[in-house]
Amino acid sequence: SQNWVFMVTAQTPTNIAVIKYWGKRDETLILPINDSISVTLDPSHLCTTTTAAVSPAFHQDRMWLNGKEISLSGGRFQSCLREIRARACDVEDETKGIKITKEDWGKLHVHIASYNNFPTAAGLASSAAGFACLAYALGKLMNVKEDESQLSAIARQGSGSACRSLFGGFVKWIMGKEDNGSDSLAVQLTDEKHWDDLVIVIAVVSSRQKETSSTTGMRESVETSLLLQHRAKEIVPKRILQMEEAIKNRDFASFSQLTCADSNQFHAVCLDTCPPIFYMNDTSHRIISIVEKWNRSEEAPQVAYTFDAGPNAVLIARNRNAATSLIQRLLYYFPPNSDDLSRF
Ligand code: PMV
């Protein structure tokens, strides 16, 4: 019969890099020029929920994002779909009388509906959660037997940073050596319980969409920035080892020093790109100054800051007390006015 629909729903949080990925050695396969490390956020904030469905009544692959249909014709969606379909296995649900064989998957079409519980346009790493969730939901739908790391190598082909969202806690994306990308995948360093004192606060500085996409920005940096070459070869490999050590030992002083330095170096690379790319704005710079001054006035650092390809600040507080004090300071320096509140 044509009357059945089989579906799977998955939820994936976004992740924030503390050692940044910036620069590809292969743009199609999305292979990076250095390893990176991130922390995955709590699923109750900034996450994507994706339902993937299959039915003999569907005549083409289709996708909706936040209720609006989007095109699946882009190479990145096609790579994810192709890679998952190639690994599809038999599915049998006796209670519903559904049987889909390996061969059927090549002929059946899927419908995908995806929702972000945060503004997609705010430049808050929506593609990371999105493609991780897409790969995971399709993998479950098609009964793919691959583990999270192998799925991460598929999510990677949607958006590089997405590969790190297949795991919770702290995650490393290993750049890999192979030209075909088979060893460019994510591994979990520690689970979400390992360092649960940390509190992440996101200060939305601007909800405008970024002017330079990460794809264009990376391409221009790879082509023109000598600082990026130096960073990838000489700086990041050492920082990765130091960061792994800091995470393992829950050493917040080292962790925050490395996180802030790496964010600043990434933005220095953007300035070193021709033409220069400005992702941070005056408010971002003020937040950096406030945190730096505060950290220096205490016996030990209280908060780490990091900024991705946009002006919004991701602030990682050492514990709840530090997070409370951080929010009080932000409200003191940036008092909410009626203009801002009208957005809510
Ligand atoms: O995966 P993309 O193309 O969204 O690039 C992400 C780049 C940064 O967010 C700036 C750094 C990172 O490692 O996530």
Folded structure, characterized:
This protein is an alpha+beta fold and 344 residues long. It contains ten helices and 16 strands. It has helices spanning 75-86, 102-105, 126-141, 148-155, 214-224, 226-248, 252-271, 282-297, 320-333, 338-341, and strands at 6-13, 15-19, 24-26, 31-32, 36-40, 47-55, 62-65, 68-70, 91-93, 98-100, 109-116, 170-174, 185-190, 199-203, 303-306, 313-317. The N and C termini lie far apart (48 Å). Bound molecules: (3R)-3-hydroxy-3-methyl-5-(phosphonooxy)pentanoic acid (PMV). Residues 17, 20-22, 36, 127, 159-161, 214-215, 308-309 line the site of (3R)-3-hydroxy-3-methyl-5-(phosphonooxy)pentanoic acid.
Q: Could you tell me the radius of gyration in angstroms?
A: 21 Å
Biggest sheet statistics: 5 strands, mixed
Strand content bin: 15-25%
Rounded mean pLDDT is 94
Sum up the overall morphology in one term: globular
SSE series: EEEEEEEEHEEHEHHEEEHHHHEEHH
Which residue ranges are poorly predicted, with pLDDT under 50 across at least 5 consecutive positions? none
Helix count, DSSP H or I runs of 4 or more residues = 10
Q: Numbering strands along the chain, what is their spatial order in the largest sheet?
A: 1-6-11-7-8
Number of strands: 16
